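Reminder to self: keep the SMILES exactly as supplied, no canonicalising. Ligand is pyridoxal-5'-phosphate.
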Amino acid sequence: MIDLRSDTVTLPTPAMRAAMAAAEVGDDVYGEDPTVRALEERAADLLGTEGALFVPSGTMGNQVAIACHTHPGQEVIVEAGSHIYNVELGTMARFSGVQPRVLVGERGVFTADQVAAAIRPDLYYLAPTGLVCLENTHNAAGGRVWPLAAAREVLARARARGIAVHLDGARVFNAAVATGTPVRELARGFDSVMFCLSKGLGCPVGSVLCGSRPFVAEAQRVRKALGGGMRQAGILAAAGLYALDHHVGRLAEDHLHARLLAAGLATLPGLSVLPPETNIVLVTIEAGPDAAALCARLRARGVLASPAGAGTSARQVRMVTHLGISRADVERTVDLVREELRAPGE
Ligand SMILES: Cc1ncc(COP(=O)(O)O)c(C=O)c1O
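Structure tokens returned for the bound complex:
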């Protein structure tokens, strides 16, 4: 199978498995796992923060951050297509007692003026704004990179009003590699940053939440409260350390494959394709089968892709390149899509 559904489907390589098998471990709830500690120190160093916390998933990292930055009854400014708003089960309401304040961005990117206008004035009958969240890269916008200048304007405007800003940086290493910007520059100024090890970086499990020392101390308490305290988690952290050493630079290959896939698909009649900035290709079917039908046909031919928007889009298909996808896979996918678009009955 050529599996283009997500970069979460990557399997640990033999070398990553060897690093995991060799990991020195201890009980991390007692703070005794040296490999988890090493990963957290490495992540903090890379992102330029005082501390970092290993968490089981990106969702938990985002939600721990929201819980740490806010109080019940507050609002959290999010983008309409963001993962936190759409695909995390309303968890900010469930666990933190806060409500989303939704801004519609231009392909995932909102402006500092939009943020300033959405921050509630200090009136006793309004829900105070507790946090602003950005997503870089923006998944639903096709792996779009948040322009650094735009992010910095949002950070400055929020800071001027005393409001914290969290970065959902599930794929922030893709943004760093695509723009040639050190990841610590993309993280600078945020009050917390979550990045995922289990997406393009190719680990089986895990994300890291980075921030100041007091933030990480509180995040550790919230993680435990949510059931995210892990024991001999160094086996997983070893995969993270391996990925940070060996799988960051190679993201450029995934981006190249995404561009080749997009260019190939764009030549096919009936399709329009957003030029990808990183590893996510969004294909709109202007004429022909709908997204579910095309995905079903491709599955029968050995290619897995998904209707976009977590399965909600009738006419858009999402394809994601990752370390399990070769250039030959990309070429075969384009050929199979060409054949399936031509299939009789459509
Ligand atoms: C932008 C973004 N944030 C957060 C997450 C959540 O990560 P996890 O699946 O590890 O909970 C994802 C997962 O796809 C994502 O794309």
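Points to follow up:
The radius of gyration is 20 Å.
The chain is about 45% helix and 15% strand.
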